[in-house]
Write a structure and sequence with these properties.
515 residues, Cytidine Deaminase, domain 2, 6-stranded mixed β-sheet
Amino acid sequence: MARKSPKYALLSVFDKTGIIEFAKTLTDLGFRIISTGGTAKVLAENKIPVIPIQEITKNPESFNGRIKTISFQVEGGILFDRGNNEHRRQARQLNIKPIDIVVCNLYPFEQKNSIENIDVGGPTMIRAAAKNFKHVFVIIDPKDYKQVGERLKKKTVSQRFRKKLAAKAFAHLSLYDAQIASYLNTGELFPNELNLPGRKILDLRYGENPHQKAAFYLQPNTKSPLANLKRRWGRELSFVNLTDINAGLESVSFFNEPAAAIIKHNSPCGIALGKRVEQALRRAIEADPESAFGGVIVLNSKLTLRAVHIIEAFKDMRKANIDIVACPDITKEAFELLQKVRKSMGIYTFSKVKRQKSKGKSLNYKWINGGFAVQTTDHEVEKSFKDWKVVTAKKPTKKQLEQMRIAWKFICRIRSNAVIVVDKNLPMTRGIGSGQTSRVRSAKIALEQAGKYAKGAILASDSFFPFDDSVKLAAKAGIAAIVQQGGSVNDQTSIDAANNAGIAMIFTNRRAFWH
C-alpha cells in the first residue's frame, strides 16, 4: 500500500488570536505545521510540533527579517496546480512540499506607519494561496478558524467556500496596499489611481429604506469620533440614523463651546450654542420643535441630567419623540433617566469631538453612479472672516457681527440652497430654509419659520442672491443684517434694497454650499 504523502500548513500571523487552538486542530487532522518567527515560538511554547520555515526554504532568516518566507520552495509549494500532472511531477522532482493551508494576517499598517512595517513575504504568500484557492486554503481572519476546522473535519469543503476565503484574502491585501500607497503619497491630492481602504464596523439595521441592506465602514487610520461609536441603549442604527449622526457631527464640531444640532434627513432643523449643554439643547429644540419630532440629537459635549430633562419635557409637552441621541459621553444619572424617556430610543456615544480643521490631505468624497468625486474639505471657515466686506452704508454692530459669524458656521453644514435666520441675540437658528431649488423659496421658508423672531435678526445665505427679491423679503420681515457670498451680476440691486431698508450687509466672498 502506497504511503500517504504528508500534508502541510503554513502559519505566520500578526494577530495570534485563536492560532494555538487552530494549530492543534490542524495537527489532529494530520497536517504538519510550518511556521515563522513569533508564531513558531508561540506554537512551540504550547507544545505544538513546528517545522521552522528555514527547513523549507533552506535559507536563514536574513536582512533583519526582511527575508523569511520568500523562496521558490514556499511559493512553489503553494502555487503548483494539484490537478496538473506535469505540475505534480515537477514538484516531486524539485522536492517541493505541498502547502495546502496558508494562515497569514498582516501587521495593521496604520498602527505604525513606516517603511519597515511594509510586509513583503506575507502578502506574497496570501496572494499565491488566494490565486490557487481551488487547492489551497487561505485564511486571514481568526474568525474563520472554527468554520474551516469544522469543514475539514466533516470533509464538507466546497469550492464556493474556498473562493469566498480567497476573495476575503485579496480584500485584505487591497486594504493593506491602499494604506501604504496613501502613506507614501507625499502631496498629490488626486492621483490617477485611488483606492479607499475601509474596515466594516457594523452591519446596519437597514438602508435608507427597510428593503435595503447597509453596513458601516471606516478608514483604518481615521481620527473620526465615529471610530469609537458605541450603542449604549435602544435601537440599532439604520443607514439614515448613521448619516444623521454624521451630519450632526459636521455641524457641532465647528465649535469649542457646547453645541447641539437636531438632524432630520441629514440636515439640521435646529442648531444652537450655549454656556452649558442643556442650554444649547433647549435652544436647538426650540428652533423648530415641529421638525425635531423623530429627530436625531447630536452634541459635542457630555450629556447631563439637566439636558435629559429637556428631552423629557419635549416629549411630555409636545408628545414628541427623539429617535437617537449621540454625544461624546453621558453621566450615569442622565443615562438612567434617558432610558425611561423612550424605551426604543437609541443612545450612542463616540469619542471627544475635536474642532474641525483641515490638516494635510483632508478629502471629502461624494458618491456618483459608478464611482465617486473627490474634493478638499471645507473646514477653515474662520480664516475666511478676514475676507468679509461690508457693502452697505449701515455697518453691523459688534453683536451683529458676532451673530453673523455664528450664522456662517451654522450654514456651512446645512443642505443647499440654504438661507437661515439666526436670533438677534442668542446663538441659535430661528428659521432654516434648505434643500430648495430656488433661493428665494429658501428665504421664504426661513423667514416664515422665524416669524416674530425675524425682527432684528440675522439672515444668512450660503451663496449670492441672484436678485433683490430675497433682500426685500428680509426687509419686510424686519431682518437687521444679512451675510451672503456676493458675486452676482445683480449685487448692486441687492445692496440698494438693503440700503433702502437700513439693513447692514456683508459679502463673504466665499460660497458655503453643502450637498
